Amino acid sequence: MMTKKTIHTLDTPTLLLDLTILEKNLDEISLITKENKINWRPHIKTHKSIEIAKMQLERGACGITVAKLEEAEVMALGGINDILIAYPLSSPPKLERLKALTAKAKITIAIDSLAQAEKVNEAFSGASLLPVWIKVNSGLNRCGVEVDEVVELAIQISMLPYLQLTGIFTHAGHSYAAKSLEEIKEIAYREAKSVVESANACELVGIKIPHRSIGSTPTFKYGAAITGITEIRPGNAAFYDMCQVGLGVAEASQCALTVLASVVSVKKDRVIFDTGSKALSLDQGAHGNKSVVGYGSVVGHSEMTIARLSEEHGVALLHSDTTLTLTDKVQIIPNHACVVANLFDEYTILRNGIVIDNWPVDARGKMK
Ligand SMILES: Cc1ncc(COP(=O)(O)O)c(C=O)c1O
């Protein structure tokens, strides 16, 4: 009889993905999009996996979102056909690659200035029309034009012969700094309003904006219900993590991704794991998030806090006695699942605690 492989047989550090939790998270997002009759274009920066992107498409996603051209290239090669590159590409080598990629998949890119639009238009001269979406700033103050600048940019884009403006989008990353659910709801409202108002203003001057897209994991549930929104793009909600738990957006039981660690040393006041910054990352939350304590949560061991990381060591300080001894294994929920997935070559897939497969992190490290 073949013995079932449990996590106790695995070497560490290992990236574990609980398939049942992942499916539940994806089903929930899918349901929200169906209830609100809107599209779902998940950001794959979280999982970077062709397999998981396909699970999202099977559940009704209309396509995917990426940040990097290289991520788009990997996903297109994996058979994903409708890709938004939510990034204002402008450099000549990237625009050359972008042109080549448009022969393999339907690609849309972000525009956030006239200068960039002109460069893209010039690079595409003689090629087929490139669909573009204007990125609007809804408060993150990163890329994106202000709401009152959208119409002017839309008119300018409509005069460029090789670009076709088909959408407006925003990302409310500043929701990660929110201090309450009330504040998250308020940010979601302003996020959606920035897109809907911009799109309506464009339509008043005769420019059709069929795609009106929002999305961040803290805000998407609220924004999805706002009239005029046609699409959401949550990324992290596939896995969730301690930042989302800290924000009150998810429960620890919804976190699909954990890092399996071994105890390599036990001292009077501390336990040391073989998961340092190379496995857990030093990330304590994006965009001013202050909701996490330490560097990940050790499942079932509230008696400790991972207080320090060096590259190969995670130092957990004890608040009370622990049962852990040398070589014991624990699962650690990371603070930020997206960056942790980027640190591993593959996911070890679990169903009910049994190892059932390994999936590559296909777009790991694809940052160009
Ligand atoms: C443009 C854009 N859309 C969607 C997302 C997904 O955000 P989240 O992971 O909070 O769901 C991101 C995340 O960085 C983003 O930059």
Count the beta strands. 17
Helix content: 25-40%
Radius of gyration: 22 Å
- The CATH topology of the largest domain: TIM Barrel
Can you tell me the residue ranges where pLDDT is under 50 for at least 5 consecutive residues? none
Write out the distinct hetero groups bound to the structure.
pyridoxal-5'-phosphate
Order of SSEs, N→C?
EHEHEHEHEHEHEHEHEHEEHEEEEHEE
Please state the structural category.
alpha/beta
Going by CATH, the architecture of the largest domain would be Alpha-Beta Barrel
End-to-end separation in angstroms reads 47 Å
Classified in CATH, the superfamily of the largest domain is: Alanine racemase
* Number of separate helices: 11
Number of domains: 2
3D structure, described in words:
- There is one protein chain.
- By secondary structure, the chain is an alpha/beta fold.
- It folds into 2 domains: 7-14 and 247-360, Lyase, Ornithine Decarboxylase, Chain A, domain 1 (Beta Barrel), CATH 2.40.37; 20-239, TIM Barrel (Alpha-Beta Barrel), CATH 3.20.20.10.
- Helices cover 29% and strands 23% of the residues.
- The protein contains 11 helices and 17 strands.
- The strands form 2 sheets. Strands 1, 10, 11, 12, 13, 14, 15, 16 and 17 form a 9-stranded mixed sheet that branches. It has an 8-stranded parallel sheet with strand order 2-9-8-7-6-5-4-3.
- Strand 7 (163-169), helix 7 (181-204) and strand 8 (211-214) form a beta-alpha-beta unit.
- Helix 3 (69-77) runs parallel beside helix 4 and helix 6 crosses helix 7 (181-204).
- The model has no long low-confidence stretch (mean pLDDT 97).
- Pyridoxal-5'-phosphate is lined by residues 43, 45-46, 65, 86, 171, 173, 215-217, 233-237.
